[in-house]
């Protein structure tokens, strides 16, 4: 376990743990080819939980994404989410919504819940009907357990599960925040990410949860990119069931709100970075920090432009300190830039100073580029705002994976 202090707020990263009142499970039903993997799962709260979500802006929004958005917007409550991999149930016409509704109903009936308390999430191949015989089989097999199999049941081309659990003290009560997600390709979110789920036993004041999620998604999930493509199924959902019995947390400047916000941001930020690091075929995590920007929006824009540049990504894979790629990515944005005094560092080594080569040691720089995490710092020299984004390198293996995705 690790304890962290950020802005005088302490939180502890603990081994994966479900918060109070949550159960889950994951099973194999035949959606994926490998019987050693889980391909369907669910997550359940003992009591109805406050719920908030953010969803893809792709115009071909998938049926399960639409349904979950409608369900949460009904009363901002959820008690369960049922999910599957290997089939996105996206661009499947009217039948897609019929199947999503049936998937919701099957889970609700087994759990003894009203349909409008159950969310649905799907990921995988686009354009193929959801095999409802396997979905029914999966719901029949699912149980309410303490395992973490559901974190595997949503993976597609991911190399591993992505999870985090954090605990904080609120009013003398232990509050747990646990998150898990999937994503490694078709990653360029515009509100959320692939599939992300964060559950907590914290008690949150009415209306505050959606505000918290919407605010923090912009600085975390929306600041990652792997390949510049926005999925049809992206969503991040948060549930808060209140079983920690703390005083309700508002979205304000109170001590409790700051404690929760810091820990919540740590969960979202870590999950976002895990997705970027697990980009299809990737070998390196790339972090870009931008400082002295005119506005925060400019800083975020420049950071994401750099991690999203295929030329920058390819240079990092090739361990080539071609700083012209970085400068070009900055210049392509509409951000205010001092074109005569922009500076760039790579893993703390000066690369560009005042828009001129820093006359760096090529051998030293290439050795630094062999690291598994590459950190780029950009000074725009026009203000006091900062921003951050995460991505990965672009490799031969990315092409191989996506050239044979349906095979």
TrEMBL record:
Predominant place of localization: cytoplasm
Residues with site note (Cleavage): 192-193
EC nos: 2.3.1.35, 2.3.1.1
MF annotations from Gene Ontology: L-glutamate N-acetyltransferase activity; L-glutamate N-acetyltransferase activity, acting on acetyl-L-ornithine as donor
Enzyme type, top EC level: transferase
Keywords, alphabetical: Acyltransferase, Amino-acid biosynthesis, Arginine biosynthesis, Autocatalytic cleavage, Cytoplasm, Multifunctional enzyme, Transferase
Gene Ontology biological process terms, A to Z: L-arginine biosynthetic process; ornithine biosynthetic process
Record localization: Cytoplasm
Active-site positions on this chain: 193
Residues given in the record as substrate binding sites: 156, 182, 193, 280, 402, 407
Pfam families: ArgJ (PF01960)
Protein family (similarity comment): Belongs to the ArgJ family.
Known partners and oligomeric status: Heterotetramer of two alpha and two beta chains.
Function comment: Catalyzes two activities which are involved in the cyclic version of arginine biosynthesis: the synthesis of N-acetylglutamate from glutamate and acetyl-CoA as the acetyl donor, and of ornithine by transacetylation between N(2)-acetylornithine and glutamate.
Name of the protein this chain belongs to: Arginine biosynthesis bifunctional protein ArgJ
């Amino acid at each position: 376990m690790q304890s962290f202090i950020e802005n005088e707020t302490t939180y502890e990263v603990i081994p994966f743990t479900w918060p109070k009142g949550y159960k889950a499970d994951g099973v194999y039903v035949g959606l994926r080819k490998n019987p050693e993997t889980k391909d369907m799962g669910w997550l359940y709260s003992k009591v109805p939980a406050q719920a908030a979500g953010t969803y893809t802006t792709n115009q071909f929004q998938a049926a399960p994404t639409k349904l979950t958005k409608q369900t949460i917007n009904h009363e901002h409550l959820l008690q369960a989410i049922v999910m599957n991999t290997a089939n996105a149930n996206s661009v499947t016409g009217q039948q897609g919504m019929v199947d999503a509704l049936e998937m919701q109903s099957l889970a609700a009936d087994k759990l003894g819940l009203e349909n409008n308390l159950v969310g649905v999430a799907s990921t995988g191949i686009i354009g193929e009907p959801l095999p409802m015989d396997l979905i029914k089989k999966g719901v029949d097999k699912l149980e309410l357990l303490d395992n973490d199999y559901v974190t595997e049941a949503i993976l597609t081309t991911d190399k591993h599960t992505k999870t985090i659990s954090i605990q904080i003290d609120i009013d003398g009560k232990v509050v747990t925040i646990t998150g898990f997600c999937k994503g490694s390709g078709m990653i360029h979110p515009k509100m959320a990410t692939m599939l992300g789920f964060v559950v907590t036993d914290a008690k949150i004041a009415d209306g505050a949860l959606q505000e918290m999620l919407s605010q923090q998604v912009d600085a975390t999930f929306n600041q990652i990119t792997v390949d510049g493509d926005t999925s049809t199924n992206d969503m991040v959902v948060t549930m808060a069931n209140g079983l920690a019995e703390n005083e309700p947390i508002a979205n304000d400047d109170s001590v409790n709100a700051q404690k929760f916000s810091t820990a919540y941001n740590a969960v979202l930020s870590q999950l976002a970075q895990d997705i970027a690091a697990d980009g299809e075929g990737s070998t390196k995590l790339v972090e870009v920090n931008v400082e002295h920007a005119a506005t925060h929006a400019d800083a975020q824009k420049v950071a994401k432009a750099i991690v999203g540049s295929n030329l920058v990504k390819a240079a990092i894979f090739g361990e080539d300190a071609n700083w012209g790629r970085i400068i070009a990515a900055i210049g392509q944005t509409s951000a205010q830039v001092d074109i005569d005094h922009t500076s760039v560092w790579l893993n703390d080594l000066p690369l560009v100073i005042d828009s001129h080569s820093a006359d760096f040691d090529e051998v030293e720089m290439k050795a630094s580029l062999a690291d598994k995490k590459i950190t780029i710092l950009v000074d725009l020299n026009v203000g006091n705002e900062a921003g951050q984004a995460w991505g990965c390198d672009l490799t031969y293996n990315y092409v191989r994976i996506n050239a044979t995705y349906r095979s």
